[in-house]
Specification:
- This is DNA-binding transcriptional regulator, ArsR family.
- It holds the Pfam family HTH_5.
- The chain has two domains: about 80 residues, Winged helix-like DNA-binding domain superfamily/Winged helix DNA-binding domain (Arc Repressor Mutant, subunit A, Orthogonal Bundle), CATH 1.10.10.10; about 55 residues, no CATH class.
- Helices cover about 50% and strands about 10% of the residues.
- The chain has eight helices and two strands, in the order H-H-H-H-E-E-H-H-H-H.
- It has a two-stranded antiparallel ribbon.
- A hairpin with a 2-residue loop joins strand 1 and strand 2.
- It is elongated, with a radius of gyration of 27 Å.
């Protein structure tokens, strides 16, 4: 199952609590409902979502079905998150507006930042408080810069 789908399933507090309980012991719907203080119908609905996501399996024991966690799915999810966290960050600042040259610059591009900064780390202060030197170091020029104080004009 896709990482985002698993995270959405686990994002519900009740489903997360059910998973935590089932990691310590196998329980039937009635026992889960009692421990969580919610109805059996509510637990059954959450169990259904967890099962469809591959996080739980059920085993019939007499009249009741006892549920347990598919730990392999949790391990795969943890590994996917670890891989995501291990991705290297970009070595330099790249403005998405500037990197899209040559691509259709329709409405989507208008929603992006309007910066043209090559070295935003050199800018200091609030908009309108940047020195001419900072603007020059950032942009290479001083025209049409968002940090330029409009009152000076």
């Amino acid at each position: 199952m896709e990482l985002l789908s698993i995270l959405k399933i686990l994002g519900d507090e009740t489903r997360f609590k059910i998973l935590q309980l089932l990691l310590t012991n196998d329980f039937c719907v009635g026992a889960l409902a009692y421990r969580l203080g919610i109805s059996e119908a509510a637990v059954s609905q959450h169990i259904q979502v967890l099962r469809k996501g591959g996080l739980l399996k059920g085993e019939k024991r007499g009249y009741w079905t006892h549920y347990s966690v598919e730990r392999g799915v949790l391990v795969q999810t943890a590994e996917a998150l670890r891989d995501l966290a291990a991705r290297p960050a970009a070595s330099e600042y790249v403005c998405q507006r500037e990197s899209l040259s040559g691509i259709n610059r329709g409405e989507e591009i208008k929603k992006m930042c309007k910066c043209k900064c090559e070295h935003p780390e050199k800018l200091q202060g609030k908009s309108g408080q940047c020195s001419q030197q900072q603007i020059k170091e950032c942009h290479g020029d001083q025209e049409n810069h968002s940090c330029e104080n409009k009152d000076k004009e």
